[in-house]
Design a protein that fits this description.
The chain has four helices and four strands; from the N terminus they run E-H-H-E-E-H-H-E. With 106 residues, it is an alpha+beta fold. It has a single domain, classed as Alpha-Beta Plaits (2-Layer Sandwich). It has a four-stranded antiparallel β-sheet.
Length: 106
């Protein structure tokens, strides 16, 4: 299992709606994430900076990359664009800043 962490920025005043959209996520999206080897996925909000910290465990980078082609994921990302800062108006994806692991204990 590979561990990944990332930061995103939420648009001002959008955290309540973003949280509502995730509780729960679409059932078909949940199934797709599981079939693509994604588990133990959490997103946290840092109120002072209005950043989101994401943590996820994946089976493989290849399975994760396959999500780019998934129609349901594409629709979800377009929906989330309402709430998250994106690279551009044309990009359906939020800016995700990956983080490198410096410590882990089991």
């Amino acid at each position: 299992m590979l561990r990944k962490a990332f930061l995103m920025k939420i648009k001002p005043g959008m955290i309540a709606e973003y949280e509502k959209r995730h509780n729960p996520i679409w059932p078909e999206l949940h199934r797709i994430l599981k079939t693509h080897g994604i588990s133990n996925y959490s997103i946290f909000h840092h109120e002072k900076t209005n950043q989101l910290f994401g943590y996820v465990e994946i089976e493989s980078e290849a399975k994760l990359a396959d999500l780019e082609e998934n129609e349901v994921c594409g629709k979800w990302w377009l929906e989330m664009k309402k709430y998250l800062v994106s690279e551009s108006e044309d990009s359906p994806r939020a800016i995700e800043d990956p983080m490198g692991e410096v410590f882990h204990i089991e």
